[in-house]
Amino acid sequence: MNAQLPPQLPEDIAARLKSDLDLIPAIAQDVSTGEVLMLAYMSRQSLAITLKTGKATYWSRSRSELWEKGATSGNTQKVLAISLDCDGDALLLKVEQSGAACHTGDKSCFHNPIELDQSAGDR
User: Fold this and answer.
1) pLDDT per residue over 40-68, tens digit each?
2) pTM for the full predicted model
3) Three-state DSSP class for 78?
4) Are 99 and 89 a contacting pair, CB within 8 Å?
5) 20 to 30 A Cα–Cα from 24, which one of 18, 37, 104, 123?
6) Cα separation of 118 and 120, whole Å?
């Protein structure tokens, strides 16, 4: 029996990632609207899986395991593009979101506005 090895991150991409990061912040953005949907974390392995499958796969910090977005909820993310920031320590995923992105059932996880102090602009 030959067990399939997990996908490996291509060397050119691995070299551009900040070397001291175990987890990389990953922002998911709706490719059609530009709306920021969620922030999650990716390990090098979950990034490699995402690159291979085109399905957003993250690292769950609370469960300490890989999770494919929508595997249980059906609210999937098809990844169309990934960008690495200039410091090599954050990712931007442009996705086609199917269903809600937030575990609360909301379209975006960013649905809790915080009011700014209106006098802040006068300083």
Assistant:
1) 999 999 999 999 999 999 999 999 999 99
2) 0.88
3) strand
4) no
5) 104
6) 5
Supply the pLDDT for residue 4.
77
Domain 21-103 bears CATH identifier 3.10.20.810: yes
Spatial contact of 107 and 37, defined as CB atoms under 8 Å apart: yes
**Cβ atoms of 39 and 23 closer than 8 Å:** no
Which pLDDT value is given to residue 119? 78
Q: Could you tell me which of 67, 68, 86 has the C-alpha nearest to residue 17?
A: 86
Token pair 């997990």 is found at 6
Long-range contacts of 98-105 (CB under 8 A, 24+ apart): 98/70, 98/74, 99/70, 99/73, 99/74, 99/75, 100/73, 100/75, 101/28, 101/37, 101/38, 101/75, 101/77, 102/37, 102/38, 103/73
pLDDT above 60 for 1: no
Which residues touch 97 (CB under 8 Å, ≥6 apart)?
28, 30, 37, 75, 76, 77, 107
What are the sequence ranges of the domains in the chain?
A: 21-103
